[in-house]
Structure formats: structure tokens, C-alpha cells
Design brief:
Layout (H helix, E strand, L loop, with lengths): L1 H9 L5 H21 L4 H27 L5 H29 L1
């Protein structure tokens, strides 16, 4: 995410949306790290749900940056595919944790 932020700032001179992308994009990893040391199953699920919301927001900013032509279609498809795969993984983790909680 940091490399994308640097690219947008240095190459494309985009300063507002790139900061939003950096904020939510790096928040995903922070929440997953917090979930690794959660105090309970409910706390784990809650932190992973926040990570899920943050990756969803990241996808929104990627779509907006693509719609305003800051990414080529090839760049967007690659980055977006990674983000979509990550939201699928996080969603599966949450579902599994909820099923194992009952």
C-alpha cells in the first residue's frame, strides 16, 4: 500500500485520495495483527470485522482512483484483484470463527 501511495503522490501528484487509500489500506493489516492477539473469540471476530470494513473501504478508494484515471485499467485490475481476494479471505475467516463460536 505504501508503494501505491508513493506512486500516486510522486508520479500522479494526487495527495488527497492517496492519503485515504493509505489510511484504510494499512489499517487492514493493523486490525488483523490486533486480532492475532485478541482477548476472546468475540474480540477476534470484532477485529476481523473491522479489517473487513477497512478492505471494503480500500476497494472503494481504488475504484474512485480508477474512475478518475489515476490508474490504468491494467494497474487497477491487478490491485483490485488483490483487494477482492483479501476481502474474501477475511470474510471466510469471520464466518469460520462465528461457526466455531457456537
Amino acid at each position: 500500500m505504501v508503494k501505491i501511495f508513493q506512486y500516486l503522490q510522486e508520479q500522479k501528484k494526487e495527495f488527497i485520495l492517496s492519503k485515504q487509500l493509505l489510511r484504510c489500506g494499512t489499517s487492514v493489516g493493523a486490525m488483523v495483527r490486533e486480532a492475532e492477539h485478541s482477548e476472546s473469540r468475540a474480540d477476534f471476530i470484532h477485529k476481523m470485522a473491522i479489517a473487513q470494513k477497512e478492505i471494503n473501504e480500500t476497494i472503494y478508494w481504488l475504484e474512485l482512483l480508477n474512475a478518475t484515471n489515476y490508474f490504468s485499467d491494467k494497474e487497477f485490475k491487478s490491485i483490485n484483484a488483490d483487494a477482492v481476494e483479501l476481502i474474501k479471505i477475511i470474510t471466510t475467516i469471520i464466518k469460520s470463527a462465528k461457526e466455531n463460536n457456537h
